[in-house]
Amino acid sequence: MPANRSPRSGSFRTGIAVLAALPLLALAACGYGSDSDKAETSKVAAGAKKIDGLDSVKIGYFGNLTHATALVGVQKGFFQKELGATKVAPAIFNAGPSEIEALNSGSIDIGWIGPSPAINGYTKSDGKSLKIIGGSASGGVKLVVNPKKIKSLKDVKGKRIATPQLGNTQDVAFLNWAAEQGWKVDAQSGKGDVTVVRTDNKITPDAFKSGSIDGAWVPEPTASKLVAEGGKAILDESTLWPDKKFVITNIIVRAAFLKEHPKAVEAVLKASVETNKWINANPDAAKASANKQLETDSGKALSADVLDPAWKSIQITDDPLASTLNSEAEHAVKAGLLEKPNLDGIYDLTLLNKVLKAAGESTVDAAGLGTS
């Protein structure tokens, strides 16, 4: 990967962000508003008290293993434990732009989300709508292809490659990678030297089996589902990054909610840190927990041939890997989906570092993009 892929510690300070129009999926299609009340651990402990008088905290996440913190945190009751009598109210999404819309409308308070939608949401609102308050995962993204049609990376040219949604994190990553191969693609239409087909992760495996796409740049577990259908993973995105680390999942919060209910936000962050610690100490049990929550949310658990390889490719971390956010923003700019943004203040890691210190863990850095 060319050197310009490396993260920088500096911040973008020039230009006013102008977003390309990003179509939102229908709320029903992304699972918007669905809940996980069937989770056995959503029960409120006897004698528990509400935080800040809140009846609930609405938490958004995707049905992806790259959102393992949220999946396990809900299923094992880590969030409910820290929130006391304030109920956890989960909402499931397919991709980031839809979740940002829900955040902006107040339909969710806190969300697990990829970097590109977080950048888009922050810049579109001139830094007023959200803050990134923590990290969650690195890795877990692969380019999987039909080996009968694509033998090597150079064969991707001229083929039809799926990404989850226009402007989502994997869409931006694939467009950037294609540009680095010297291929030209119109970001909005997806047409060019390679055709980008924006496809819901839920139907990508069927599209792959039918032959309507030749491959996909997708997160786990979709990548491993394609491999189970006869696909071949020919590129792991982590290999394109220094130290094989890049942010794939952040924690964001509605700015107004952070201001009005810092105790509730701190409780969610404490639960996130506890969840991540438990995941890393108990990988097999955590894998089973995440799969159980996926079954609760979608009605279907993952088979072992999908779950096991998918889980191995994801790193769970409290660190938001802020320096890589700069690079991901640059990729969106290069793709033509975003004008060069000012990301100053996109992070507020104050509460996370408070929680980490209390837990005896190392604090994390905002790479110059934190709230002063």
From TrEMBL:
Pfam families: NMT1_2 (PF13379)
PROSITE patterns: PROKAR_LIPOPROTEIN
Domain of life: Bacteria
Subcellular location: Cell inner membrane; Periplasm
Organism encoding this protein: Streptomyces pseudovenezuelae
Cleaved signal peptide residues: 1-28
Record bears the keyword Manganese: no
Protein family membership: Belongs to the bacterial solute-binding protein SsuA/TauA family.
Protein name: NitT/TauT family transport system substrate-binding protein
InterPro entries: ABC_SsuA_sub-bd (IPR010067), NrtA/CpmA_ABC-bd_dom (IPR044527)
Keywords: Cell inner membrane, Cell membrane, Membrane, Signal, Transport
